[in-house]
Each structure stands twice: as C-alpha cells, then as structure tokens.
Design brief:
By secondary structure, this protein is largely without helices or strands. It is 11% helix and 7% strand. It has one helix at residues 30-39; strands at 23-25, 56-58.
Length: 89
C-alpha cells in the first residue's frame, strides 16, 4: 500500500508522505459505499470511480470511535462512515 492516496477532495494525504496514517478501502456493501461517497461529497462518474484495492480514505477522516479498540492494526468498526473534513489536511 505504498502508493495509495486519500480520495477525499482537498486531502493531500498519501502513504509515502504520511505512512503513519491508515488508508481504508471503500466498503463492498452498496448501501455503505453510497454513504461514504455522499459523506466525502463525491459522485461516481468520469472524474471519480471506485476501484477495489486502489481507492482509499485516510484515517484523518474518521473519529477515534470509528476504530476497533485494542486491535494491533487500524481497523474500522462495521458501519463507520468518514465524518471529519478539515481543510488543509
């Protein structure tokens, strides 16, 4: 995952520059995937399409409560939706 970037508009995070962040693939469940797309204010189309294994949202867009506690890796809880969108990340 050394060549991944965050898909949130305005976020310039990438695994090479910010290896300490975690990068999360879009859910495969169609309803939850739509929630993520809506939350990050994107539309699937010619300018944005979700490719399994290469379209990510970085951990800066999730609250601490969105993560499974006690896990050795940064794993999202089921149903977590990106909700933090500060400019200049």
């Amino acid at each position: 995952m050394t060549n991944c970037f965050c898909s949130v508009p305005g976020c310039s995070c990438g695994a090479r520059k910010q290896p300490y962040l975690s990068y999360h693939s879009f859910p495969t469940d169609p309803d939850q995937r739509r929630q993520w797309i809506h939350a990050i204010r994107r539309d699937e189309g010619p300018d944005f399409c979700i490719k399994t294994g290469s379209t990510f949202v970085c951990s800066r867009h999730f609250t601490l409560e969105d993560f499974v506690s006690g896990s050795s890796i940064s794993r999202l809880r089921s149903g977590a939706v990106p909700s933090l969108f500060c400019t200049g990340l």
